[in-house]
Amino acid sequence: MRVExxxxxxxxxxxxxTIGLFCVWLWQPPRQIDRHAKNLLHxxxxxxxxxxxxxxxxDYADQWGNDRALVLERMRLGLGYGHHLRLKAxxxxxxxxxxxxxxxxxxxxLIEDDDPGLGAVVKERVNSxxxxxxxxxxxxxxxxxxxxxxxxSNPELEIPxxxx
Length: 164
Hints:
The protein has a 4-stranded antiparallel β-sheet with strand order 1-2-3-4, sandwiched between helices. The longest helix has 22 residues, at 5-26. Helix 2 packs antiparallel against helix 3 (49-55). By secondary structure, it is of the alpha+beta class. Strand 3 and strand 4 form a beta hairpin. The chain has 5 helices and 4 strands. It has a single domain, classed as Nuclear Transport Factor 2, Chain: A, CATH 3.10.450.50.
């Protein structure tokens, strides 16, 4: 069977259009923020602190007074000792501002861990929260996949003064 130039050209065009449509679908801001939030939770579970740091903006600040360096240090201390840490997002949703440069990802987060020590204290405190965490993401470049975490908040979560 002889493949003609026209047949190959149309097959290439269809393949290119399919890949292009997939990229447009994949790179929509709500989908990117959801993927980044899930990647953040997964990287914390795996204790891949360099990848966690890559997802956090240099101007990060949260309601507890943490900057980027302090939140990374506290995550390492509070979540770094569990043997089988699992983080589950419950009822996650995402909203994008009208300009498309800031997104808010909201979800309750449950911690599952077999560690009876420090991890159990963190687990008990976070799992008892009824309000969802809010992760604010900002689009930082022209690349559709380039989002960074700039703020985390949960009005119900209080960090005791002895952790300062």
